[in-house]
Specification:
With 189 residues, the chain is mostly helical. It is built from eight helices and no strands. Helix 1 packs antiparallel against helix 3, helix 3 runs antiparallel to helix 8 and helix 4 packs parallel to helix 6.
Length: 189
Amino acid sequence: MITRFAGPLIPVLLMLAPGAALAHPGHVDGAFLTGIAHPLTGLDHVLAMVAVGLLAAQLGGRALWAAPAAFVGAMLLAGALGAGGPELPMVEPMILASIIVLGALVALALQPRLAVALALVAVFGAAHGWAHGVEGPGSGLAAYAAGFALATAGLHAAGIALGLAVRGMALRGLGGAAALAGSVLAVAG
């Protein structure tokens, strides 16, 4: 059982390592590379984006592509709106809520209707997008957006792969771990 669980978990743990070590430092040079780095350098972003993949795996069917598409689409739109804009006080709490709520949905094995799940995922994607837009570069926004969309989609894919690999109680455990980690981040923040 441990081997079956640990094997798929290793790529996710490796992705978490840069995020835990860097936690949103100054970003790398170049708008595209900065865009790729941003979602990978914050544990809050990594956990939420992997949780979207876990939820998509739990729901199955069209959710496997629709949940990541809803998140990325809303994230890109809100990122464009937030570029150069003010920081909104609701964004960071929404990012933390995304980890807790998405993780709890998986932990409790809830099966919301696809439209409800996609709306929820899109709202959380918009919060992440606004944060990315505000923190993004003043120039090279399109390249930056392409980079963070690619990294986000990769994190969603990792969550889906992990969720499909473990299923059942192990999947619920990962959801619970995400919700717990989100709660710890909320209290620590």
